[in-house]
Every structure is written in C-alpha cells, then in structure tokens.
C-alpha cells in the first residue's frame, strides 16, 4: 500500500511543478529558501502562468527525438541574475508528464522571472523540488514496515510451534479400522487324577523269604503264667 502511495506522491509532485513555456518570460513565486530544479519537459501541459507568456494551458509533446537546446535566464525581483547549476540528469515519466533535470538554482522567498528561449516550441520548463524525495521516504517506510511484518510473522510462527498442543486422539466412532485384542475364554481345569483302588482278597501279611537249607525260627514258649486264650 505504501509503495502505491509513493508512486502517487511522485505523480502529484510532478503535477504541482510551475511551468514556463518557450518564447516568453514567466513570473515565479517562491515562499521558502531552497534548491529547486529546472526540468526540460518533452511532454505535458502548462497551467495558468504569469508574465508575458500566452501559452497558458497549452499542451506539448516533443516525442522521442533528441532534446532541443534551451537558453534559460532566471532573475530576482531586483533584476539580478541567479546562478544556475548543473542538473542531476534525473528523469521522470508519469504518463502525462515526461521530463529531465536540466539545471538547479538556489532561491529565497520572493518573485523571480524565468525566460526560456529555444528553436523548438514543443517543450517547456518545469520548476520544482526533487520529486523522488517524498516518494523515496514513503518507499523507505514501506520497506521498514514490510521488514517489521516479516519479523513479527516469524516470531509468531516460532511461538505457535512451541506452544502448539498435541492433537487429541480421534474419536472411537470415526469409521477407522483399528486392531482389537480378542481374549479367548480359559478352558475348565481338568479333574485331579483318581488313584486306582486295589480290588480282590486281602493280601497276606508279609514274611521274610526263607533261604534254602535254613531252619524255621524256633518258637519260644510262652512266658510263665501265660495261657492260651480260650477258643
């Protein structure tokens, strides 16, 4: 936006120049002490000019040919000639006005007379400050604002990355397939094994085996006072 206004400032500055047609003496009024530039304009339109010039409101367009030779004379109210310095060669083109810096002059507040002489009548002389000054300031401001915006944006991006919370898990009913853990039921425990029961007649009491040629153990007589139990 500021870049747009810088171009608009350039156009308005050029449009506000004082202009002096060729072949006459134009009265110029200055209200400040400053260095002003005199431009040769090959395309444009003169406004209301004061002096002995009858070219008020006339248009001119020299085209793309070589610049014509001009003779400029600038005098203050007392008739003293004002020294003219060399122009910077700065050029402007706003579409409606095309000009090139021709000379410079240091003036004080007051009235001045500018006489323009040339063999070509399709040009004029414009007087004003450097139109790039104001637009350059706006461009510098635009650049500073753009740089500040980049720095602020980078800082906000870093903060957002650092403070960004972890995304919540998706809801269970989002139609996404998920593996499920299937737990099979435990089989019933088998019964404890049953010990086999010995079926049949009662086993005879154990007796030690008799070795061949051995004598059976002697039967001791019952102790005294012992009698056979009744049958």
Topology summary:
Layout: H1 2-15, E1 18-21, E2 24-30, E3 34-45, E4 50-51, E5 59-61, E6 70-76, E7 85-86, E8 91-93, E9 98-107, E10 110-118, E11 124-128, H2 132-163
Antiparallel strand pairs: 1-11, 2-4, 2-10, 3-5, 3-9, 3-11, 6-10, 7-9, 8-9
Helix pairs in contact: 1-2
Describe the fold and architecture:
There is one protein chain. The protein has helices at residues 2-15, 132-163; strands at residues 18-21, 24-30, 34-45, 50-51, 59-61, 70-76, 85-86, 91-93, 98-107, 110-118, 124-128. The protein has 231 residues and is an alpha+beta fold. It has a domain at 2-135: Sandwich (Jelly Rolls), CATH 2.60.120. Strands 1, 3, 5, 7, 8, 9 and 11 form a seven-stranded antiparallel sheet that branches. It has a four-stranded antiparallel sheet with strand order 4-2-10-6, with no helix packed on it. The chain is rod-shaped. Residues 1-7 and 135-145 have low confidence and may be disordered.
Class based on secondary structure composition and strand pairing: alpha+beta
What does the radius of gyration come to? 61 Å
Largest sheet: 7 strands, antiparallel
Low-confidence segments, given as residue ranges, are 1-7, 135-145
CATH A-level architecture of one domain: Sandwich
Assign the CATH topology of one domain. Jelly Rolls
User: Helix segment count?
Assistant: 2
The share of residues in extended strands comes to 25-35%
Fraction of helical residues: 10-25%
The helix/strand series, from N terminus to C terminus, equals HEEEEEEEEEEEH
Distance between the termini: 141 Å
Could you say which overall geometry the principal axes of the C-alpha atoms support?
rod-shaped
Query: Residue-averaged pLDDT, rounded?
Result: 74
Number of distinct beta strands: 11
């Amino acid at each position: 936006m500021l870049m747009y206004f810088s171009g608009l400032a350039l156009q308005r500055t050029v449009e506000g120049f004082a202009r002096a047609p060729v072949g006459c003496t134009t009265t110029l009024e200055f209200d400040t002490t400053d260095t002003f530039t005199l431009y040769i304009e090959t395309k444009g339109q003169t406004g209301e000019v004061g002096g002995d010039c009858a070219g008020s409101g006339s248009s001119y367009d020299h085209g793309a040919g070589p610049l014509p030779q001009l003779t400029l004379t600038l005098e203050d109210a007392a008739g003293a000639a004002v020294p003219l310095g060399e122009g910077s060669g700065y050029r402007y083109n706003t579409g409606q006005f095309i000009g090139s810096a021709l000379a410079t002059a240091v003036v004080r507040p007051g009235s001045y007379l500018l006489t323009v002489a040339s063999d070509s009548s399709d040009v004029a002389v414009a007087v004003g400050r450097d139109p790039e000054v104001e637009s350059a300031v706006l461009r510098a401001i635009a650049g500073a604002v753009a740089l500040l915006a980049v720095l602020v944006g980078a800082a906000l991006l870093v903060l957002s990355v650092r403070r960004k919370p972890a995304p919540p898990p998706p809801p269970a009913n989002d139609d996404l397939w998920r593996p499920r853990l299937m737990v099979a039921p435990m089989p019933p425990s088998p019964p404890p094994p049953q010990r086999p029961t010995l079926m049949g007649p009662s086993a005879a009491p154990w007796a030690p085996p008799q070795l061949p040629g051995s004598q059976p153990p002697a039967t001791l007589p019952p102790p005294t006072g012992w009698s056979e139990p009744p049958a």
